[in-house]
Request: fold
Amino acid sequence: MATVTATTATPPTIHPARRRLSLGRAAAWAVMGLIILITLLPFYWILRTALSTNAGLSSDPNSLLPVDLTGGGFERALGLQSAKEAIAQGGAGGGLDFWRYLLNSMIVSTLIAGCQIFFSAMAAYAFARLRWRGRDKVFGLFLAGLMVPTIFTLLPNFVLIKQLHLVDTLLGIALPTLFMTPFAVFFLRQFFMNIPREVEEAALLDGAGKVKIFFRVILPMASTPIITLSVLTYITAWNDYFWPLMVSYSDSSRVLTVALAVFRAQNPQTGTDWSGLMAATLIAALPMLVLFACFARRIVSSVSFTGIK
Amino acid sequence: MTIASSSPPSRLPLGSAEGARTKPRTYRAGAGDNRGDGRLAAVFIAPALLGFLVFLLWPTLRGIYLSFTRFNLLTPAEWVGLDNYVRMVNDPIFWNSLWVTVEYVVINIGIQTVAALAIAVLLQRLTQSALLRGIVLTPYLMSNVVAGLVWLWILDTQLGIGNEIISAIGFDRIPFLADETWAIPTIALINVWRHVGYTALLLFAGLQAIPNDMYEAAKVDGASEWRMFWRITMPLLRPVLAVVLIMTMIGSFQVFDTVAVTTAGGPANATNVLQFYIYGSAFGRFQFGYASAMSVALLIVLSAITVLQYRLTRAGQTDLG
Reply:
């Protein structure tokens, strides 16, 4: 994860090799096609399963289209069916309130992405643009933090969150990454350092203070990397499972990833409620797909033009 | 770890910012500007520093401390010296977990790296389509939980389409996740599906830095694509490949989510990867001290890999000059 150092730089234009339809090219395209198929097929399979009935899935397992097209899976996932109806259709009957988990996921991810990027941007500005004693030493310390694997801090952090009485709260889930990650600070510092000093000096001459410069000049100029980083942080926070699993126990703080695992564990006697589970999976994944659709170009180019040189 | 950006190399060294050289007077001590900067910097850095100290530095030190204690969350930690480590060395389940994790990493990283390299090269040499790059990245948007559940369903022994196809071709159905030999390779491949696109894009970025003239020149000399791959692409990509390899391997060692939703460590500890065992020790049996000791072991393994790989691959050097 700790590698995307996006840039606004445009890709070097490479002229694709002259398009001769040789055997080699055809084979290469066939491989590419296969890769795309393997990449995308599971997404279709989620949809196809979610729209089928459980009875239909077992009677006709290899149908490429939904079997007995129904919205029952989604109704169960969203808790819109009565326990009796749910059990009749192969569900567990125990209610799971996916709207609530959706909201919880949104609150946690928004809180983390918003605060982390803002605080990291402030720190990055101090590291890139302000002069103060010990700056390089403190920054070196932050960089060293990049090397500590997340797993290592999870247990002690859990102990800390417990001592703060924040277990089973949304704040408890968000807190460890709320203020910074070394990566976010590093990432933004790189951009701030590339903003020409003249821009800042012109603003200083106009009588603006450094705080004003940060908010009015630097932040707007770095909006592209900031948006990119926010989206990536949002996706990471949304997809996180281990930490929320440790911290949350009840509905009040359950996020979608954890809820999905709970939904899966609620096995009805008839076997897994695949239709309901895939519907729930789709609900959990859809927001990220939409987010990606909106920012695809930026995300893709930020990952590819990272420049890990 | 070298994480550079598009910034020119001259600006990469920490500190000694470029402005200091050209306009020294502005920042000399005594100038109001300087002192103002210090105070403002303190304010600006305060939240991040708080987060760093409280949730990164302190837990790191505390984790090391806890590994020398017996601690169950309810009573204060009790110093037991090396007990946890002695227990760890004598714990067959720990060694099994470590072995299973290594097996997972080898399969996961081996296949992922080759596949990612293939995708990256195809993306570069075949087409520059942004749409394809986007498609390749989509699985990365899924959580491990979603990826695990979808493949659990596709590979289901009775109803999964994967097994339907296998049985249609005429083979026996494979209990991918319920069988001791199949479980780890299956989980490794599921995570390849989720991460390969991201890795491919990182490598693709490295490929973009190779000047196209080199390929043009080689082509004039009559070199085949295959030869160009081995003579141009691989040598020039090596530093990027090394960094990507270190990163993905460190991530790979921390496998947890997929195991948790698919096999939960089973069958018979066959997928009880180290993280899962650590989690179970802490939250299943409330042995936080022991769990911490195993975390320290994992940390040591990861650090060793980083150092070793960095040395072996001479990741810091670039052939491109």
